[in-house]
Amino acid sequence: MAVRAPEGTRDLLPxxxxxxxxxxxxxxxxFGRYGYQPIxxxxxEQTELxxxxxxxxxxxxxxxxxxxxxxxxxxTLVEGGTIKAKSRLSLRPEGTAGVVRAVVQHDLVPQGxxxxxxxxxxxxxxxxxxxxxxxxxxxQVGIECLGAEEPTVDAEGIIMxxxxxxxxGIPVASTRLLVNSMGCSECRPAYRDAVKAxxxxxxxxxxxxxxxxxxxxxxxxxxxxxPACSEVMDGAPKISDYLxxxxxxxxxxxxxxxxxxxxxxxxxxxLVRGLDYYTRTVFEVQVVEGMGSQNAIGGGGRYDKxxxxxxxxxxxxxxxxxxxxxxxxxxxxxxxxxxxxxxCDVFVASVDDSVRDMSFRIVQAARDMGLTAxxxxxxxxxxxxxxxxxxxxxxxxxxxGPDELEEGVVTVRNMQTHHERKVELKxxxxxxxxxxxxxxxG
Length: 442
Ligand code: HAM
Prior knowledge:
Strand 12, helix 13 and strand 13 (about 375) form a beta-alpha-beta unit. Helix 1 (about 15-35) packs antiparallel against helix 6, helix 6 runs parallel beside helix 10 (about 245-260) and helix 7 runs antiparallel to helix 8 (about 210-215). The strands form 3 sheets. Strands 1-5-6-11-10-9-7-8 form an 8-stranded mixed sheet, with helices on both faces. Strands 13-12-14-15-16 form a 5-stranded mixed sheet, with helices on both faces. It has a 3-stranded antiparallel sheet with strand order 2-4-3. By secondary structure, it is α+β, with helices and mostly antiparallel strands. The chain is elongated, with a radius of gyration of 28 Å. The longest helix has 20 residues, at about 15-35. The protein contains 16 helices and 16 strands. Helix content is about 40%, strand content about 20%. Histidyl-adenosine monophosphate binds near residues 134, 296, 319, 320 and 323. Histidyl-adenosine monophosphate binds near residues 138, 140, 144 and 301.
């Protein structure tokens, strides 16, 4: 049997690959207006970074990481040996930890500097059970702003994300933006204790996993997919009743700025998100219909302790990531079709093999001047070369024939108007240049 792509992965075939490029470019343009600059970090990092950054008790770290082991280290492990901590590597399940590591390593936010605003796009890896909208390798576009704790950073980030969705054509009416504040190291411990006490009271109604969560990280129970747990957690204490004055003021300003920008949102006190690094603002954008359970197209929040967690000096942070594949599903559900291949400007057809060298020179000249140009590589008949030109949506076909060559001309046919004219070889270049000029204006 032929080998297929691993479960939970997808090939981005040319139409989709082009759309992914458009998607990334649109993000770079819009996020660029807000000052975000591109960064690229490795696809794998030391496992310890994710354990410290994302949290050992999260599903992402405890169950879903792909470990990357070099052949040499694998042999050592198989033989019962141990490998150094720095050789324990994992494929990145998300982008924040790696960006924060790079910020610390390269000191991108020196004391007193303006915040570092960074954006990234690329594949992430999570060993989750694959289903529609949930893959083991998926693409994210994300941003991280390090070095400012002001609520304006959170608000402009949320506004920027919603503007991006709008620009890509995701109908705002079909999405909902959920927001919450997770509090800080001042107020969260009391809340956590209250949730734990509540869970202990309801231990008999909660699943084994949630009872374990009650010990390690009670807030994770809000994410439990078990309907019985969900019902119990509905009655759990609300973070809004526990926020300290500073967190409350921060949250109020974020909400007010987002509302002022004309963006509707829903306050969801149960929104805790699946990664442990969040403090204060958290948010998620969901598609209301047609996406099944994997309906979150983007999310993020503030993480004011993460930099310290990975060994840097105290530096507040905020960011989000959006899932490309889920956005594509949302767009397709809204009726979008992937744009096809752009048309070929010039197809150079040969009447017979005797002129192929000249056709090759002409097609090359066309490409060198910036036109998309194609030629037959399979010795097709003139008729099937025209068929191929049609298939490529060629705008012009230049027909090179032995008799015409003798006269020093080629026949140029406009495939839309079917108008044909003879063009002298020595003026062909300027005819094509003019065409290129018109095409660029058009
Ligand atoms: P996240 O919510 O885990 O956040 O992922 C962000 C987005 O990635 C999700 O909303 C979803 O669209 C997409 N996504 C996640 N897992 C999968 C999957 N298995 N298959 C397809 N798409 C998926 C983060 O990753 C954080 N790093 C965001 C962030 C940045 N927070 C602060 N800064």
